[in-house]
Amino acid sequence: MSMSRRTFLKATVAGGVGISALGFDLRPAYAAVRQLKIRNAREYKTVCPYCAVGCGTIAYVHGSGGLNTTKTIIHVEGDPDSPINGGTLCPKGASQMQLAISPRLRKSPMYREAGSREWREVDWDFAMEWFARKFKESRDNTFIEQDTQGRTVNRANGIAWVGSATVANEDAYLITKTMRAMGLTYIEHQARI
Amino acid sequence: MTNHWKDIKNADVILVMGANPAENHPCGFKWALEARDENGAQLVTIDPRYTRTSAVADKHLQIRPGSDIAILGGLLRHILANDLHHADYVREHTNASFIVSSDFGFADGLFSGFDEAASRYDKTSWRYEMGPDGFVRRDMTLEHPRCAFQLLKKHYERYTPAMVAQIAGCSEAKFLEMADIICSTGRADRVGTIMYAVGWTMHTTGSQIIRTGAILQLLLGNIGRPGGGINALRGHANVQGATDHAIVAGILPGYLGAPTPEQTTLRAHLDASTPKPLVEGTVNYWSNYPKFLVSLLKAWFGDHATAANEFGYQYLGKQDGDATWLSIWDEAHQGRLEGFITLGFNPLLAGPDVPRLLQSMSKLKWMAVIDPFLLDSAEFWRAPGMDPAEVDTEVMYMPTTHWIERDGSFTNSGRWTQWKEKAIDPPDGVRSDTWILSELFWRVKELYQAEGGAYNEPIQNLTWNYLNPREPTLPELAKEINGYDRATGRLLDSFAQLTADGATSSGNWIYTGSYTEAGNMMARRGTDDPTGLGMHHDWTWAWPLNRRVLYNRASADAEGRPWDPTRAGIAWNGREWIGDVPDYGRTTPPGGAGAFIMTEEGVARLFSSELADGPFSEHYEPVESPTTNPLHESVAINPVINWYDGVRETLATEGDDFPYACTVYRVVEHEHFVTANVPLLVEAMPDFFVEIPEGLAAEKGIENGGRARVWSKRGEVEGVAIVTKRIKPLLVNGRTVWTVGIPVHWGFVGATRASMANLLTPYVGDANTRCPEFKAFLVNVERAEPRST
Amino acid sequence: MPDTLAIKRISATPSAMIPLSSLRSSGPVYSKLVDISKCIGCKGCEVACKEWNDLKVEQTANFGSYQSHKDLSSNTWLLMRFNEVAVGDDDVDWLIKKDACLHCEDPGCLFACPAPGAIVQYQNGIVDFNQDQCIGCQYCVSGCPFDIPRFDKETKTVAKCNMCIDRVEAGLEPACVKTCPTNAIQWGLKEDMLALAEKKVETMQRRGFEHAALYNPGGVGGTHMMYVVPHGDRLEDYSLPAHPVASPMPLSGLNVLQRVGSYLLGFGVLGALGHLLAFGQESAEDSEGPGA
């Protein structure tokens, strides 16, 4: 009964206008034929980034990402095959393309010195060197090998890691693996708050 | 969720309480409406506000914030007083028949064993009576006065409709109308589900609220059945997966315990973590704990994890005491935390008591913020009211990739783990989480090699055998999580193959089977549904072992016959179980072992010593409450919550003028704070607002669309007033109580900027999880003058 | 494959003056069906409409409601309207309605339009505005009994929902239908939607909404976005006009033709379907005295 995304691929491109029931040729009177903006886009199956319903989505992308082209996302829509959402999306899901390509996205690390009122743009090498140095300093300053009762505890209590409920499982796993190996025990994400 | 989104369509009754799925999970909520219209299911909401979910429900009951246990306790009493429970299920699948120690008792708001000085319970009296055979004594007639069933009955006897009404502020008649609907599923041919979310968890009694809901579902025989269960609706794309993989204090991946200082050896840790069966013949699945833990250590430390070095057990930090959110920030507040790293998260807006949080952040030496957006937390030093010159915290902001620029999997609320494709490339200048983490790892490791320093053997010995060690791929990590047979290098199919001798590795045992020699199970997109119940076993993959309904053994009776053949979870056909992936081995016959394979009882617990604040639940007031506790005035609030220094002084007390109950929440147009960057959503819900009941607004001279100021003892907010008929005054314990509602989505950075709701909320958490009490506190309200523009 | 975009009427041409609604369309005739009892007011449709149609984001301000904009605009073709209604002393209904073009079978906008080709009605039921031909006179605005078209001061043209004609042409459902999280908006052949509506009315009556009814007003020849309304006796609470009619045409002399058209309708195809449905019947009678 209802049309699905699948049918459109099979649909022939109508001329846009036709002959009226009275037989007048009305073609010249109507010029605006709209192009389906996703017609030549490539589809990628992904999952909505917002809540944990896990709606299946399809990202429509122009460009191959090859030489002289940039892959550009032009639209995101629900995946009609998903048994969870059956192609539907809430307002957040329906506007997720704007999250993906928001002009507010940042492209460079930034550093704020103690007491400063401003940010300063820095490069990744500076950022990571700072990060590793601070991490090691605080770890060294606060690491406890044995507690007051002489028990081996090997923990780094001076550093906390928090996040994230929005990263992939594989990243989440690597976060835990790395931070636990560093001796951190203050490890949290959004689940509790 | 014990069940999953599409399964909700199988229900006859849907109770939505402590959740607002129409707003926070709209596409999952479709299945509730499908049940309503196609099954004739009844959909009811119980909430402090009439929400967009209530707008399409058959019935709505308004309650006071923080009165959930009173309501649920009243429902338990309604069932027990009227014999509405599913008797066969309760006898077969719960510990109703277990005899409890004669030392156990409850009086004047306290369970036996309360240690007033330590504000905690000594739980030794909360145990079963053991028989001479070493197993629990049972009375299958459920008549023994100390069997769990009778104790339950006695405990909740006090929750009469009149008492419920007095606490929650609803009318007795309306409560009973609701109770008749909710308690109508205690039969084999009917099934009901509960949809809850952080409206239950975010209280000082949060864990016990959930437990009461679980007891309700057990009495009605609804756990394990299609269309049943107790379903936590989770709020972030991978909050389930991030929890499974233990970016959480106190656990290791797969809900293994993080080691503690008393567990000085691997043996001690395993002994403390591996339960003994309490009933003969139970599966007691956690008896496999050593296999899961050793396989995890092998995944992390590889050849450096050997029997000789306790498989690297000592490499893991052993935390003394709590390490959750509130404790972390308390450490900072006390000046003991030096560095704070946050990734994909906006802690400043998310936590309670923002004024205190700002003080804590200012005491850090450094903070690293990793996120696609420059968010409020990164700019805490210039939050409203802050003087940057006074803040010595160094801050590094690092831009990272979005979900759509990576592959990898998200685990949804129903445990379906869905692999996603990478759609576009990240912009130049942006790095992936994996790159940043690897870079940090290598640079720290190299610094230790060059300079030495604190104990760093685990860092040197951490397995990092990725094709590109500076940026592992997500499929590589997915395989590591799944686990290998280390001798052959073959990917494992099931956690049943894991061993405790180091022959296998698995980064997270509950994910074993997700990426096998047959391929990436999480990337599957098969749409078949031979069960007709919406299980879709070929669509991606669900933990554990692609099981779609947890505890599904309880969907059938002792002989393995489904309670309801039209909605069979699993069924024994004489040779094997058919239907869902069974809890049991596919060919293990019914009988003997209990249905709840993860408990040492083999059955589900009506009575349980697991929680800190009682083997049953009890209504305690929120720490800020507009009333005394009508059940026991002397023990008004949860007696075993933890108090951080200085927090009591930040709570409203007798004599302070904070007469109104307040609660905070989300609206559908926003996802916490990140959507402040999405123009279409800012357009759809532009401004911070305060929902104020009509009568209260009239009293205060607040006009709809005008402005209102709301303040608690901790902070204040101001915004547009939505004057509403959807929140009514309640008669609570003899006085009128008004409720005010506030959404959480705004901060001082982003395309829409306004008051932070968490300026108001208290820094106190649940007695078990320390999940903060966001959902019930006290405020005052007044009219504010229009903004000059 | 039938021609999905065969034209039925074009504004200010003879086709607009001769009533055609009694003639069977050659191809499929579509309709949306909005089940208000399943609508959660999430604005998924509102946002999906703007996203798909590349409509400008407007500056909004909360005016004491969950509703995003006070009114439709040339860049907001679909608006969720929220209305709290007291029920007795103690209860409340939160009535939420998707407001957008209903795509009338007898489109008042098109009848009123003096610009040839600015408004086109397709055989499939879609009434589309063609801004290239629009002269900005706004007669369509006064011609619409549902107060839908909106004038854009910048472009000096009028705009409204075009039923995602680009999608429909390609065999896809409109963006609002596709996205609706609860499937409250359905899409299909009008006859199938009428049958579905009947079933939905029965479901609502079983659930206790004794006045549940289909909204497919005959005064405009029926619509191609129909509603199933739980409280059919309280249409004003949803801001749905009880007896909409295609407004008299501003161009003198065309009134007669419109009357003829409406008359034919009364006994025509939709009139026959209308007997099932309270509104159809009522408006079929109304249509004998149109222009009132």
Major sheet summary line of chain C: 4 strands, mixed
**Overall form of chain C:** globular
Summed over residues and divided by their number, the pLDDT of chain C gives a mean of 84
Structural class of chain C: alpha+beta
Low-confidence stretches of chain A: 1-32
What is the percentage of strand-forming residues of chain A? 15-25%
Tally of strands of chain A = 8
Q: In percent, how helical is the residue content of chain A?
A: 10-25%
Strand tally of chain C is 11
* Terminal CA distance of chain A: 44 Å
Straight-line distance between termini of chain C:
41 Å
> In oligomeric terms, what are we looking at?
heterotrimer
| Bulk shape of chain A | elongated
The largest chain-to-chain contact, stated as pair and per-chain residue counts, equals:
A-B, 118 and 160 residues
Could you give the order of strands across the largest sheet of chain C?
Answer: 9-2-11-10
Helix count, DSSP H or I runs of 4 or more residues of chain A = 5
User: Which parts of chain C are unreliable, with pLDDT below 50 for 5 consecutive residues or more?
Assistant: 248-292
What topology does this entry show?
The complex is a heterotrimer of chains A (193), B (789) and C (292).
Chain A: H1 5-10, E1 42-47, E2 56-62, E3 72-78, H2 91-94, H3 96-100, E4 110-112, E5 120-121, H4 124-142, E6 143-146, E7 152-162, H5 169-181, E8 184-188
Chain B: E1 13-17, H1 21-24, H2 26-39, E2 42-47, E3 59-62, H3 68-81, H4 87-93, E4 106-107, E5 110-111, E6 114-115, E7 120-121, H5 148-156, H6 161-168, H7 172-182, E8 192-196, H8 198-201, H9 206-219, E9 230-232, H10 239-244, E10 251-252, E11 256-257, H11 266-273, H12 289-301, H13 325-333, E12 339-343, H14 347-350, H15 354-362, E13 366-370, E14 394-398, E15 408-411, E16 416-420, H16 433-451, H17 457-461, H18 474-482, E17 484-485, E18 490-491, E19 504-505, E20 515-516, E21 519-520, E22 541-542, E23 570-572, E24 577-579, E25 660-665, H19 679-684, E26 689-693, H20 694-700, E27 707-711, E28 716-724, E29 730-732, E30 735-737, E31 739-743, E32 777-784
Parallel strand pairs in B: 1-2, 1-8, 2-3, 8-9, 12-13, 13-14, 25-31, 26-28
Antiparallel strand pairs in B: 4-5, 6-7, 10-11, 15-16, 16-22, 17-18, 17-19, 20-21, 23-24, 25-32, 27-28, 27-32, 29-30
Chain C: E1 7-10, H1 14-17, E2 30-35, H2 44-52, E3 79-87, E4 91-99, H3 108-112, E5 119-122, E6 127-129, H4 139-143, E7 150-152, E8 157-159, H5 165-169, H6 175-179, E9 185-189, H7 190-206, E10 213-215, E11 225-229, H8 254-266, H9 269-274, H10 278-286
